[in-house]
Amino acid sequence: MIIRRERPPDRPEILAVIEAAYPGAAEARLLRELFASREYLPELSILAESADGEILGHVISTRGWIDNVPALGLGPLGVLPARQNQGIGSALMHASIDAANELRETVIVLLGGTDYYPRFGFVPADSVGIASPDPSWGSHFMALPLTGFHAGIRGHFRYAEPFNGL
Ligand SMILES: CC(C)(COP(=O)(O)OP(=O)(O)OC[C@H]1O[C@@H](n2cnc3c(N)ncnc32)[C@H](O)[C@@H]1OP(=O)(O)O)[C@@H](O)C(=O)NCCC(=O)NCCS
Hints:
CATH superfamily: Gcn5-related N-acetyltransferase (GNAT)
Structural class: alpha+beta
Shape: globular
Distance between the termini: 32 Å
CATH topology: Aminopeptidase
Order of helices and strands: EHHEEEHEEEEE
Number of domains: 1
Radius of gyration: 15 Å
CATH class: Alpha Beta
Bound molecules: coenzyme A
CATH architecture: 3-Layer(aba) Sandwich
Largest sheet: 9 strands, mixed
């Protein structure tokens, strides 16, 4: 398996993977809008590909803000149903975190399962001073402070514009 950055010709297949991972849900539409948004960051749209060129999973992080400080919002993350629980999601998460650190980003936030993301170091966002856009998300709104994080980064998180349409 190869982990690499997405290229525009990969997008139809990536969208099919996300549609398969989240059938009938809003994630594929969100991802299509994120690809076209101002908050798209090419280094942080990452896919997993089999040796014979099939796209198995994809993850994206896009520009968000904590008050006026740039931060990253991660998601959607999806893996082809037939290839789940084989470490692909974990490989994509580790690649995203490594790339974000190399870009000297300060923090990644996401909305997700509390039984999955803590294994990558995510903690409840409010425990590091980051308030969610929707208080009902509770502990599902998580943050991973990166190497460049410091305690002065506090406030309300705002996602890339396409998330407002969810
Ligand atoms: C969630 C997802 C991205 C994880 O990717 P993956 O490649 O299947 O996961 P990995 O192989 O890296 O990790 C497997 C572990 O994740 C857990 N896991 C898989 N899907 C999960 C889910 N939806 N919620 C919580 N945990 C999940 C497995 O139980 C397994 O745990 P273990 O290591 O303790 O046995 C993938 O399963 C997926 O696309 N699911 C469909 C969409 C979805 O349900 N998303 C919810 C996100 S919280």
